[in-house]
Specification:
Elements: H1 2-18, H2 38-45, H3 61-76, H4 81-94, H5 100-110, H6 114-121, H7 129-132, H8 135-151
Helix pairs in contact: 3-4
Length: 183
C-alpha cells in the first residue's frame, strides 16, 4: 500500500511539472494541475448511479442489444434481493417486446429508490400518482400482488397500507401476533 502511495505521489509530481507552464507575467497566477484530475472523477462517476437519462437508441440491432443488456443488468443488480428477483425476471420476460415508450417507462421504474419501490409494489404504502400511471410499474405491481395472493397466507401479511413486520421475534407470540408465518 505504501508503494502505491509513493507511485501516486510520483505521478502527481510528474503531472505537476508537465502541466501548463507558468507564464512570465504578473497578471495571472499559473493554472493549477487540479483540473487534470477531473476526468478521473468523471470516469469514475459513470459507474455510480446518477440521474442521467439513458440514451434510448433502437435504430440498429447492436444498439438495441446493448440497451437491453444494460437495462437487464440494472434490473438484476439493484442490491435488494427481492427486487433483483422480481424486476430481473420480469424485465427478462418483457424487454424484447417493448417499444420506445415502454423502455422509457422501464427506465423511470429502474430510477426509483429500492425501499420506496418495494413498499409501493407490495402495497405497504400508496405510490404517488405519477408512479401508478406508469405501465411498467402497474404490470409489476399486478404481478407482485398476484404472487402474494397465490403463495402467501392472508394471516401472514399486514393490512394493505401498513408496513410489514420482520419475523425475528415471532417466538414471543403476543395476543396481536399472527397465527402462522413470520409476519
Amino acid at each position: 500500500m505504501a508503494n502505491l502511495r509513493r507511485a501516486l505521489l510520483n505521478i502527481s509530481r510528474i503531472l505537476d511539472s508537465t502541466a501548463i507552464p507558468a507564464r512570465i507575467t504578473n497578471v495571472n497566477p499559473p493554472i493549477q494541475s487540479a483540473s487534470l484530475y477531473r476526468p478521473l472523477v468523471g470516469s469514475f462517476s459513470r459507474f455510480c448511479s446518477s440521474n442521467e437519462s439513458v440514451d434510448i437508441d433502437l435504430s440498429n440491432e447492436e444498439s438495441k442489444r446493448r440497451l437491453f443488456n444494460r437495462l437487464l443488468y440494472r434490473s438484476k443488480q439493484r442490491g435488494f434481493l427481492e427486487l433483483d428477483l422480481i424486476l430481473g425476471k420480469w424485465v427478462e420476460e418483457h424487454i424484447h417486446s417493448m417499444d420506445q415508450n415502454g423502455i422509457k417507462s422501464l427506465v423511470d421504474v429502474l430510477d426509483l429508490e429500492n425501499p420506496d419501490l418495494w413498499k409501493w409494489l407490495t402495497s405497504q404504502e400508496q405510490p404517488p400518482e405519477i408512479i401508478t400511471t406508469n405501465p411498467v410499474f402497474s404490470a409489476l405491481h399486478e404481478k407482485v400482488m398476484n404472487s402474494l395472493d397465490s403463495y402467501a397466507a392472508p394471516e401472514t401479511r399486514a393490512i394493505p397500507g401498513q408496513q410489514w413486520v420482520r419475523g425475528w421475534d415471532d417466538f414471543k407470540k403476543g395476543k396481536d401476533s399472527p397465527i402462522s408465518g413470520n409476519q
